[in-house]
Design brief:
Number of helices: 5
Order of helices and strands: EHHEEEHEHH
Number of strands: 5
Structural class: alpha+beta
Strand order of the largest sheet: 1-2-3-4-5
Strand content: 15-25%
Helix content: 25-40%
Largest sheet: 5 strands, mixed
CATH class: Alpha Beta
Radius of gyration: 16 Å
Length: 158
């Protein structure tokens, strides 16, 4: 399988959004994607980029992506957050996911981070097995905590 892993470009945003929607569908949240193409493009390729993205191409077609952004840990210092690593269903098992993850880890090392972190759904056993096979520590005793827009409003009204 011949593929290329490269830095995403502004013109890739439309393909990135399609991959994000594919992931939402897979995670049984088909209506959860709110980000628009314009927002995704501005956030990644505008004046002040919020994230860095790598894409995987096969025959000049985007078939995967890994989107990361910097965070800061009060315990570790600079860390990197992997928001999404997505490979189209047709291309899973071809090594593209491993190549994307290696690119993220290499990028993190180049950035001098002390940790790379991400979340995985507890029912996504293939992804958990994949990450553990790469040496990742899946911390099953931690829960993800979030405030959505409605939760933010309710909190501020209290």
């Amino acid at each position: 399988m011949n593929y290329t892993i490269r830095n995403a470009q502004k013109s890739d945003a439309v393909h990135m959004l399609a991959l994000i929607q594919e992931l939402a569908d897979f995670e049984k949240e088909p209506n959860a994607v709110q980000v628009t193409l314009e927002e995704l493009t501005e956030a990644g390729f505008g004046e002040r980029p919020c994230y860095h993205c790598f894409v995987a191409e096969v025959n000049q077609q985007v078939v995967g992506m890994a989107l990361v952004y910097p965070r800061y840990s009060t315990w570790k210092g600079p860390v990197l957050h992997l928001e999404d690593l997505i490979v189209t269903k047709a291309m899973r098992g071809t090594g593209i996911g491993s190549a994307l993850l290696k690119k993220v880890v290499t990028y993190g090392k180049e950035q001098g981070v002390r940790r790379i972190g991400w979340e995985v759904l507890d029912w996504n056993e293939p992804a958990i097995a994949f990450y553990e096979s790469k040496g990742a520590n899946v911390m099953r005793d931690w829960d993800v905590v979030q405030l959505n827009e409605e939760g933010i409003e309710r909190f501020l009204e209290q």
